[in-house]
Amino acid sequence: MYESEVRGQEQGQDRGQELEGEQEYELPAWMVRYRNFKTLGAYVCGEFIRFYLTTGCEQISYTHSQITEGLPNYSCRLTSEDGAVLLLPLDDWVERMEEVRPLVREWLGEHSDLKGYQREKSHYQGDPYWFAKWQEANPW
């Protein structure tokens, strides 16, 4: 970054504001909504992936509305073998996105039984939270 750009940022300016007659670009609502959905998906799927790669537990499945018909638009779903479903529609969570990861982590713990599952050999060390839960269930 050039020194003049750094100074401009320190003063609260960006390149768009420096140009006379330029207005700050506002993203269209559909783009903001889609970006929020991608964030929701990253939170839900990210926790699911860390859970699965760390424990090897196949009792839970993940999908989202862009690959599964019948789900509400912009939603993510976790389903467990015990029949429980966690459906997260974006409209219900967009204002409280910080609650998604803890909720998903708690739900995964409640609807899975890690006893007897073998971890796959991998370079991935695993998520410390899920590794501890797996060790509690498999104390050998």
Structure description:
The chain has helices at 3-10, 15-18, 29-55, 90-93, 100-110, 128-137, and strands at residues 60-64, 75-80, 85-89. The model is unreliable at 1-18 (pLDDT under 50). It is an alpha+beta fold and 140 residues long. It starts with a helix and ends with a helix.
What order do the helices and strands come in, and which of them pair?
Elements: H1 3-10, H2 15-18, H3 29-55, E1 60-64, E2 75-80, E3 85-89, H4 90-93, H5 100-110, H6 128-137
Helix pairs in contact: 3-5
Concise synopsis of the structure shown:
Helices cover 46% and strands 11% of the residues. With 140 residues, the protein is an alpha+beta fold.
Primary descriptors:
single chain, 140 residues, alpha+beta, three-stranded antiparallel beta sheet, 3 strands, 46% helix, disordered N terminus
Rg result: 21 Å
Instruction: Bin the strand percentage.
Output: 5-15%
Tell me, briefly, the overall form. Answer: elongated
Helix content: 40-55%
What is the first-to-last residue Cα distance? 54 Å
Secondary-structure element order, N to C: HHHEEEHHH
Give the count of helical stretches: 6
| Most strands sheet | 3 strands, antiparallel
Secondary structure class reads: alpha+beta
Low-pLDDT residue spans: 1-18
Overall mean pLDDT stands at 85
Number of strands: 3
Question: In what order do the strands lie side by side in the largest sheet?
Answer: 1-2-3
